[in-house]
Every structure is written in C-alpha cells, then in structure tokens.
Design brief:
single chain, two-stranded antiparallel ribbon, 74% helix, 1% strand, 14 helices, 361 residues, globular, mainly alpha
Length: 361
Amino acid sequence: MTKTHIGALPASALIFCCRIFYLLTYSPRGPDYGGSASMTAFLAAGLVSIGLCAVFWGLLRRCGASGLPELFHRQGRVFAAFCELAVLLVLTGSALSTVMNASGFLTSAVYPGAGAQITAAAAMLVCAYGAYSGIEAVSRMALPVAAVFVAGLAVAAAGIAREIQPAYFTFAGAEAVPQVLELFFQALYHNTEVLLFLLLTDKVRGAGTAVYARGVLGSMTFYQLSILLVTVTLGPFAYVRSYPVYSMLAAAELSVVTRLDIINLLVWILVAFVRGAAYLYCMVGCVRRLAPGLRRSHAAAGVGLGMTALAWYLCGSLDRGLELWELWSGAAPFLLSAAIILLSVLAALAAGKKVKSCENG
C-alpha cells in the first residue's frame, strides 16, 4: 500500500484538466449544425467513458486489486513486463501528443514563427520536473488551475455577451448522425484517462468511479458551454477559424482586464503542464516496475531526457509530427488501453478460478 495519497477532489481536478486540454484547439467539422453535433458527440463520449471506467473498476475490485499495476504483477514477470511495456507505449503517445499539440498551437496561433522544437523540448522538460515532484503535487496544483479555468470561461462569457446571437445555434437533425458518430468516436478514442486513472487508483484516497466521473462530468459541462459560446458568438465564422475558442477569447474584453485570451492562454499552459506531468509520472512508475532496482530520481531523469529528445526529433519535421498525430487521433490508444485492462482482469479471474478449483479438489 502506498504511503502517500491524493484526495478525491484533487484527483477529480486532475482528470478534469487532462480531459479539458484539447478544448483550446477544438475546431468544428462543418458549419451546418450550429455546434449541436459536437455537443451531442462529446456528451455521449463522456458518458460512455464513465460507463467503461465503472465496468473496469468493478472488475478490478472483483479481483481484489487496488490498481492495474498490482494486477499486472500477479501473473508473473513475463505477463507483467508485456503489460507494462504496452502501457508505456500508450503513456508515451499521450505525453507526446500533449506537448506537441501545445507546441503547435503556441508556435502557429500565438507566436507565429517561433521555434517548434525548442518550445516542445522546453515544455517536456517542465512536465518532467512536475513528474519528478510527484503526483500528489501535480494533483494539488490541478485543483486551483481547474477553478481558474472555469472562472475564466465565466469572465469570457461576460466579456463576449454583447456579441451573442442565439440564432446561430441550430439543433442537429437526422442528417447530422454521420457527423455526430464521427465526432463521438474521435472523442472516445482520444480518451486515455481511464487507463491513467486505473494506474493511479492505489494512490487516491477513496478511489472509485465517482472520482473519475466528477472530473469527466465537469469537463463535459465545460465543453458544452464553450462550444455553445463559440457557436452563438462566431456563428459560421467558427468553421473557417483554425482555433475558434481562442478567437472567441481574443474578442472578449472587459474594462478591467482588457483582452481575455492572454489570461486563458496562461491557464491553458498550466493545464498542459498538469496533463503532461501526470502521464510522465505514470511512465516513471512503469520504468521502475520494469527495473525495480532503479532509483526514482534516475528513472525520472531518464524518462524526462528521453521524452525531451523524442519531442525535439518529432518537431524537427512537419511530416513526422503529422504522422504521430494521425496515429494518435485514431483508435489505437483507446483500443490498446482497453485491451490491456481486459487482458489483465481476465488473467486474474482465470487464475482465481484455478486456485479455487484446486482448493476444492
């Protein structure tokens, strides 16, 4: 049993920040359905992810495990090594997509012409320091960051209120079903937070589906309100903007703080830090379980430097970056995460039945 614990509320805030990260770079697929297609798809994907977390958590509890790592190592070294390497692959892709997405946005929309390589490498090093500080520190930071992000949306709504045109919002009909399904699967495939949560449950005080559900429900509500604001303020122009949420924030002004995009941008960078640090922390855990004799500081340094070098290499070429994004925006991370969890649970249940039959025999 771990000696350090994360409170349930900071853990929910951590999930919230991880799920909300892609909001600032959200872009609607088409102008025909007034944002309602995206809202429907994201809502459905969030509810499905909560259901999946409930199922997986219930299976873990049935096996008597406090988290996935414990379940991996019940089946022997070979099985544990296979699962840990598969998890490491998912975490690597998630951490890289976080840093490269942030770097791409900053060097294209905010500071055009800035060096993508140095931005990505610096961001990865900062996230690595967060991972070294520990998941407790990262989750405690997530709570005020989430609160400020929510407050930022409220202030932005006040600043943009004069531009709201309710007529821009239209409900999606039956003809929007293909688009809704496409967005639904895209949102679901981007979700690796179920795996992240199950890797951390042994550190969460009072861990359970409710902790994950609070974070996801909060992020879903935030997504719904943000997309609604983008729709009723930018209208058909949202489709032609590369980053419509950022454009909306840039247009929002209050006499006290002037433009709001700078404030929200700073908070979003902190959200990116929280997400990147959480995934890197879990990577350090995987490396230490694969090499038990390795000190935590050495594992953190190795993961941090290795991921920084990888981010530098991938950002050195637009083609390499796009290839990673195309791979990670598909079904691979979600399906791999689900396969790891189910395989571990089924192996544990099969082993349990075998032991029980031997005892009865």
